[in-house]
Automatic annotation (TrEMBL):
<feature type="domain" description="HMA">
    <location>
        <begin position="3"/>
        <end position="66"/>
    </location>
</feature>
<protein>
    <recommendedName>
        <fullName>Copper-exporting P-type ATPase</fullName>
    </recommendedName>
</protein>
<comment type="similarity">
    <text>Belongs to the cation transport ATPase (P-type) (TC 3.A.3) family. Type IB subfamily.</text>
</comment>
């Protein structure tokens, strides 16, 4: 079922980084919406994606991500 998952990001320094991370996340199967906050270094992801696949996509885009409790 759909839920909201939060990741803690690293490596973002500007708004274009935010756009790149959001694009990478949106391409993962099951993602409905994404909200990346540069100041907080968080990504809020709604839908039902495999979170490890999301993390892999972010890393492939050149950034860091870990599960935020
Ligand atoms: Mo901004 Mo981010 O110039 O990888 S795009 S630093």
């Amino acid at each position: 079922s759909s839920k909201v998952q939060q990741l803690l990001l690293s490596g973002m320094t500007c708004a274009s980084c935010v756009a790149s991370v959001e694009k990478a996340i949106k391409q993962v199967t099951g993602v409905d919406t994404v909200s990346v906050n540069l100041a907080e270094r968080t990504a809020l992801i709604s839908g039902n994606p495999d979170i490890k696949t999301v993390i892999a996509a972010i890393i492939a885009a050149g950034y860091g991500a870990e599960i935020s409790e």
